[in-house]
Write a structure and sequence with these properties.
The complex is a heterodimer of chains A (about 280) and B (about 300). By secondary structure, chain A is an all-alpha fold. Chain A contains 12 helices and no strands. The relative contact order of chain A is 0.14. Chain B has a two-stranded antiparallel ribbon. Chain B has one domain (about 75-305): MetI-like (MetI-like fold), CATH 1.10.3720.10. Chain B starts with 14 loop residues before the first helix and ends with a helix. Chain B is built from 14 helices and 2 strands. Chain B has helices spanning about 15-50, 70-75, 75-110, 115-125, 130-140, 150, 170-195, 200-210, 215-225, 225-240, 245-250, 260-270, 275-300, 305; strands at about 50-55, 60-65. Classes of the chains: A mainly alpha (about 280), B mainly alpha (about 300). Chains A and B meet through helix 1, helix 4, helix 5, helix 6 and helix 7 of A and helix 1, helix 3, helix 4, helix 5 and helix 7 of B.
Chain lengths: ~280, ~300
């Protein structure tokens, strides 16, 4: 018995180190002066600490523009995807209609779709429709690729909602709108919210389409901008500044995770396993 | 649309059922259309373009060439080399992730303290941008700035001047480490969900009957988690098969570390070879289908049924 306890304790420590070591590493790099990384420094922690990288990165207009693009594109894609997914998931969870299985299978197939396969045709199409290098040009595919996850998560959540409570409230004298707003919305909100977070993660992370369907900073998102940010010397990228930018774009993720970890885990696993 | 005949679902006869049927269809329609516009239509177009010699820089030179793009790709050694890299990365990363993910899931299942802290920690690699993960690991293995060489110099073959990105296998190793680091948490969360479905009574009964730890794991836990393991393997394998971000950032395909996705991207976006690139896209799509089919057959689990969709 004691041995399992020790094992669990060790496992706990291993998991923490596994998850956080690379994070601590880029944090440490972000405080190293550029000269230190340019000449090469095998030390884990900075020899001298500086905040200069943060000043430089936040004053870099390409980077701040990419942050704006990423935020706008991810938020809009998330909002739209969640609206459409909510409608579909409600139908899947509550209504009997033909083709339900087909919709779920389609969603599953799209979740597994190799995104790179679409790069060529979309590149061609988007240039014809003047969507190349625009926000909608990324928002549209992001919606399509996040819909499957959102639909699966939401329909699993919706199936757990005791819908009879809506009628019960109406019997007790509430109007349909009151019953919906006071009973159903509070019950459904956590699910919708979870789907929104997962969708946002996807849009914030997406890279293949972001580098293929954009050409300038007017629509380039953070991951794409980071990959093109090589600094003055192509063969010696500014490690500490790249690390700083990485830290900045990881902050929203950490905040979301800290606030909503329980919901995210529930959402991630709800679509996969019955329960 | 109105002439709905009851076949499998006998409920579709009353007015109410007809109305419900049509409402259901109307509610899923926007989502279905959106998913199809961005996938089905471009995929059909890729199928069509793959039959042409079509380069964006010389659009007038476009000509129907039949299946010659396919024969060209399938006889090219680069295609097979990249496919080999992709499959290798997929098999190794998913295998390693399954083992580590299981260990993590066991720890998280047993742990009684700091559950919130461990959940938070495990979600950070999951949520982090893949490009950032790639940078973090590129810097970790960097010759001038990394800490791997100084921390692990006691291992044979690693010294202060080991250039990880200078050789094929070491570069592949670094790429796989980044991939494994980022996606093991997802795997472990799916496995944890499966683990919590295994009945404690059954485990207790096996223990009473004198089953060893290994027997309990092999005969009780694993068979009861088959659906969860399949979902985890299926999603991760298909995801790993699409590997692109890590390679793009860490090596740009140097040292023969290119993947199939990277090859397709390079043909289309860098060389504007839409015809050839489309043929690659179609082949990639077919490989994913084949892979998904193979995994589902291997585990022999009905995915919709596993989820109670019936």
């Amino acid at each position: 018995m004691n041995r399992t306890k020790v094992g669990t304790g060790v496992g706990f420590a291993v998991i923490l180190v596994w998850c956080l070591l690379p994070i601590v590493w880029i944090l440490s790099l972000s405080f190293k002066p550029v000269q230190e990384t340019t000449t090469g420094s095998p030390h884990f922690l900075p020899q001298t600490w500086t905040l200069q990288n943060y000043k430089d990165v936040l004053n870099n207009s390409d980077f701040t523009r990419a942050l704006l693009n990423s935020t706008g594109i991810a938020l809009i894609a998330t909002a739209l995807a969640v609206i459409f997914a909510t409608l579909a998931a409600y139908a899947i969870a509550r209504l009997e209609f033909r083709g339900k299985r087909l919709v779920l299978s389609l969603a599953l197939a799209i979740a597994m779709f190799p995104v790179v396969s679409l790069v060529g045709p979309l590149f061609d199409l988007w240039r014809t429709f003047h969507l190349f290098n625009t926000w909608p040009g990324l928002i549209i595919p992001y919606m399509s690729f996040t819909l499957p996850l959102a639909i699966w998560t939401l329909s699993a959540f919706f199936r757990e909602i005791p819908w009879e409570m809506e009628q019960a409230a109406q019997v007790d004298g509430a109007t349909s709108w009151q019953a919906f707003r006071k009973v159903i919305v509070p019950l459904a909100a956590p699910g919708v919210f979870t789907a929104a977070i997962l969708t946002f993660f996807f849009a914030w992370n997406e890279f293949v389409l972001a580098i293929s369907l954009t050409s300038t900073t007017s629509a380039r998102t953070v991951p794409a901008q980071l990959s093109f940010f090589v600094g003055s010397d192509e063969f010696n990228p500014p490690y500490s500044q790249l690390a700083t930018a990485s830290v900045v774009v990881t902050i929203p993720i950490v905040v979301l995770v800290l606030l909503f970890q329980r919901k995210i885990v529930a959402g991630l696993t709800s679509g996969a396993v019955k329960g | 649309m109105t002439a709905v005949t009851a076949t499998r679902e006998p409920a579709v006869t009353s007015d109410r059922a007809v109305a419900e049927n049509s409402l259901g269809r109307r509610l899923v329609l926007p989502a279905v259309l959106l998913m199809l516009i961005v996938t089905a239509y471009p995929m059909l177009r890729a199928l069509y373009l793959s039959l042409f010699r079509y380069r964006l820089t010389t659009p007038d030179d476009r000509a129907f060439v039949g299946l010659s793009n396919y024969t060209h790709v399938l006889t090219d050694s680069l295609f097979w080399k990249d496919m080999g890299n992709t499959v290798l990365i997929m098999v190794i990363t998913v295998g390693v992730e399954l083992v580590i993910g299981f260990a993590f899931a066991m720890v998280m299942h047993r742990i009684v303290f700091a559950r919130g802290a461990i959940r938070t920690a495990i979600l950070i690699p999951y949520g982090i941008i893949t490009v950032v993960s790639a940078f973090a690991w590129q810097f970790t293995f960097s010759l001038n700035n990394g800490y791997v060489n100084s921390w692990f110099s006691w291992l044979p073959g690693i010294s202060a001047d080991t250039n990880w990105f200078g050789g094929h296998w070491t570069a592949m190793f670094a790429i796989m480490v980044s991939e494994i680091w980022k996606t093991t948490p997802f795997m472990s969360l799916l496995l944890l969900a499966g683990l919590s479905q295994v009945s404690e009574d059954m485990l207790e009964a096996a223990k009473v009957d004198g089953a060893t730890w290994w027997q309990r794991f092999y005969k009780v836990i694993l068979p009861n988690m088959r659906a969860a393991i399949m979902v985890a393997v299926l999603f991760r394998a298909l995801d790993a098969f699409r590997i692109f971000d890590n390679i793009f950032v860490m090596t740009k395909g140097a040292q023969n570390t290119e993947s199939s996705s990277f090859l397709t991207y390079r043909q289309v976006i860098e060389q504007f070879q839409l015809g050839m690139g489309s043929a690659l896209s179609v082949l990639l799509f077919l490989s994913v289908l084949l892979l998904a089919w193979g995994i589902v057959k291997l585990f022999n689990v009905d995915l919709a049924a596993a989820r109670g969709e019936g």
